[in-house]
């Protein structure tokens, strides 16, 4: 079974995506999926199974995993214990090439990140040693999260003990081309979501006819392109609502919608509530 390509959207003010999930606020399963972003996952406790590529590994008391992009995998967490906490950190290769790489002092961290191509599973001692650092993430602002991640990477690059799951990870060249094409599509939407998005324009940009483009996108993501764009835009609308107590109309236009009733239907479909009720629940009447 081919993995679904997962779209990971970063907040406008962040170069990382860091999410914290408690046992009662567990993230919706992505199933068997792949994405170009690097990913580090810390699971506090409980037992589970890692399904990465063609390999499986069980863990019994939480786990810490670090893998590079383009590696198919299933969800890592579990719901065994009420006090469980799962921290998921994701960042793009540009975070390394445009930010970290300019500092020669971070050479050891860059070496560690390079090794994540083999998938790193850290031992229990390393996992326990970083508990205090990982539980901080959910209460930090953007700057604090970045600084805390660098601290975690510094520890892992100097003192972390790990197993490399793969000696090398084989990547089918055709599959790699498909993922690059999807990355280009996602980047197009990320840059154009507030404007008119033309299937004719994006399909020509990635070298497909409109019909072939729609079939390709559905095959790779198990969803329609229009559905993906609407979900992306409603996600942006949530970001704008969370930034400030803006009007529904203002957020509607900023996130790329032009029709109030259509915006309301799509927002409720993907976010579970109408824009006005979401705004009221966040800021009160």
Can you summarize this structure?
This protein has 285 residues and is of the alpha+beta class. It has twelve helices and ten strands. α2 (107-115) packs across α5, α7 (199-205) packs across α8 and α9 crosses α11.
Structural commentary:
The protein has 285 residues and is α+β, with helices and mostly antiparallel strands. The chain has two domains: 4-164, Jelly Rolls (Sandwich); 173-283, Homeodomain-like (Arc Repressor Mutant, subunit A, Orthogonal Bundle). Helix content is 46%, strand content 16%. It has helices at 93-99, 107-115, 124-129, 131-136, 142-159, 173-192, 199-205, 210-221, 225-243, 248-254, 260-271, 275-283, and strands at residues 4-5, 16-22, 33-34, 38-43, 48-52, 55-59, 63-67, 85-91, 120-122, 162-164. The longest helix is centred in the middle third of the chain and has 20 residues, at 173-192.
What is the structural class? alpha+beta
Compute the CA-based radius of gyration.
20 Å
Provide the CATH top-level class of the largest domain: Mainly Beta
The portion of residues forming beta strands comes to 15-25%
From N to C, what is the helix and strand string?
EEEEEEEEHHEHHHEHHHHHHH
List keywords for this structure.
single chain; 285 residues; alpha+beta; Jelly Rolls; Arc Repressor Mutant, subunit A; 2 domains; 6-stranded antiparallel sheet; two-stranded parallel ribbon; 12 helices; 46% helix; 16% strand; globular; DNA-binding transcription factor activity; RmlC-like_jellyroll
């Amino acid at each position: 079974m081919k993995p679904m390509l997962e779209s990971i959207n970063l907040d406008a003010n962040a170069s990382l995506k860091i999410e914290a999930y408690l046992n009662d606020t567990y993230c919706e399963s992505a199933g068997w999926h792949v994405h170009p972003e690097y990913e580090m996952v810390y699971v506090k406790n409980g037992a589970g199974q890692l399904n990465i590529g063609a390999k499986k590994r069980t863990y019994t008391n939480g786990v810490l995993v670090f893998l590079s992009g383009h590696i198919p995998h299933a969800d890592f967490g579990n719901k065994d214990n009420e006090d469980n906490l799962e921290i998921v950190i994701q960042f793009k290769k540009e975070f390394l090439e445009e930010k970290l790489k300019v500092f020669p002092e971070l050479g050891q961290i860059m070496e560690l990140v390079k090794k994540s191509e083999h998938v790193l599973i850290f031992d229990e001692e390393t996992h326990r040693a970083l508990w205090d650092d990982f539980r901080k993430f959910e209460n930090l602002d953007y700057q604090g999260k970045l600084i805390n991640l660098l601290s975690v990477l510094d520890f892992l690059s100097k003192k972390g003990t790990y197993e490399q799951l793969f000696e090398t990870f084989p990547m089918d060249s055709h599959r790699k081309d498909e993922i690059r094409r999807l990355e280009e599509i996602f980047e197009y939407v990320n840059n154009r979501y507030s404007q008119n998005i033309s299937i004719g324009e994006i399909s020509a940009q990635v070298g497909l006819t409109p019909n072939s483009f729609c079939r390709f996108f559905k095959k790779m993501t198990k969803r329609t392109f229009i559905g993906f764009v609407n979900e992306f835009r409603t996600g942006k609308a949530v970001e704008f609502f969370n930034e400030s107590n803006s009007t529904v109309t203002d957020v509607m236009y900023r996130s790329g919608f032009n029709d109030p009733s259509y915006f309301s239907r799509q927002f409720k479909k993907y976010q579970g509530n109408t824009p006005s009720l979401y705004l009221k629940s966040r800021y009160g009447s």
